[in-house]
Amino acid sequence: MNISGELIAFFILSVSAIGGAVFMMNLTRVMHMALALAFTFFSIAGVFILLDAPFLAVTQILIYTGAVSILMIFGIMLTKHKDEENPPSFDIKKLWSLIGVGAFFAVVLWIIYQSPFFTSEETVTDFSVKMLGKSIFQQYMIPFEVTSILLLVALIGAAVLAKREEKRK
Amino acid sequence: MNLTSYLALAAILFCIGLYGVITKRNAVMVLFSIELMLNAVNINLVAFAKYGMVPNISGQVFTLFTIAIAAAEAAVGIAILLALYRNKGTAEADKYNSMKG
User: Fold this and answer.
1) How far is the C-alpha of B35 from the C-alpha of B16, rounded, in Å?
2) What pLDDT does residue A141 have?
3) Is the residue at B101 inside a domain?
4) What is the distance in angstroms between the Cα of A169 and the nearest Cα belonging to chain B?
5) Same domain, yes or no, for A71 and A10?
6) What is the separation, in whole angstroms, between the first and last Cα of chain A?
7) What domain range is B47 assigned to?
8) What is the CATH number of the domain that holds A22?
9) What is the mean pLDDT of residues B47-57?
């Protein structure tokens, strides 16, 4: 395999994404976990740029590293957490879940490397933002509108759920 | 770059997220791990959009929808978590066992 710039960029981005995720699993302070996962989301945005999806990369940074991370940090701050999680004890439950997830991962990876994925001959597909907009607002118009309704319902539902209940007389 | 590298990266991230969902005790971190799993799926969708058998922009459109749904899910999840915290006084997922038979 020849070393290209794309390969180097992919290597760096995937190492930082996986590293952020692994740090998220191993850190003890909840706030540090949130920051590590924000770093992972940022690296995934870089992967999107490698895959010719610049609009998605910007959306990823705006929504995940911006909005969702801040939302989660609010969630952490509004609930009383023991600042240090319990020291990582290695009990039998963790061992079994590690074995299960590891087996699942091995099977998935085996399937990925076994299946013959046909890569396309035509590589000049237009992935511009203009095409994305045309696709959303012509072919996927109805799902787009349904998504907007869902966002509205989720907004109202979240506000109602998180509202403090009045004391019933 | 070929398709399998991206699929392998997505599989690794998905499995780390799955492990987090199973083992984390803080409910906020469980929600965060679910977001990580959704992101891994997004990588798959975008990779197939570029390197699949029929390269098509639909994969990116699906990813946009997934991001919107995931954001809504995070907001509702945090709201449910806050309501639960107000009632039970803890954010640990193990303690939410009042529906246990």
Assistant:
1) 11
2) 93
3) no
4) 18
5) yes
6) 73
7) 3-89
8) 1.20.120.1200
9) 84
What's the ipTM?
A: 0.88
Would A4 be classed as within a structural domain? Answer: yes
B16 vs A117, B53, B95, CA distance in Å? 25, 28, 23
Give dist(CA B19, CA B23) in Å, integer: 6
In a domain, B72, yes or no: yes
Could you report the per-residue pLDDT of A98-146, keeping only the tens digit for each?
999 999 999 999 998 888 776 666 666 678 888 888 889 999 999 999 9
Query: How many structural domains does chain B have?
Result: 1
Cα–Cα nearest to A65, from A93, A84, A92, A46: A46
Average pLDDT, chain A: 85
Q: Closest to A53 (Cβ–Cβ): which among B46, B58, B89?
A: B46
Residues A135, A92, single domain; the answer is no
- Distance (Å, rounded) from C-alpha B26 to C-alpha B95? 10
Q: Which of B43, B55, B79 sits opposite A44 (nearest CB)?
A: B43
Could you tell me which chain A residue has the CA closest to the CA of B85?
A79
Paired strand residues for B70: none
Q: Which domain holds residue A144?
A: 126-169
Give dist(CA A14, CA A42) in Å, integer: 11
Taking a C-beta distance cutoff of 8 angstroms, is the pair A73, A31 a contact? yes
The verdict on residue B32 lying in a domain is yes
Residue A90 CB contacts under 8 Å (≥ 6 apart), including other chains: none
pTM: 0.89
Q: How many CB pairs under 8 A join A and B?
A: 223
Q: Measure the CA–CA gap between B42 and B49, rounded to whole angstroms.
A: 11
Q: How far apart are CA B13 and CA B33, in angstroms?
A: 10
- Which residue blocks in A61-165 are alpha helix, DSSP H? 69-78, 92-114, 129-134, 141-162
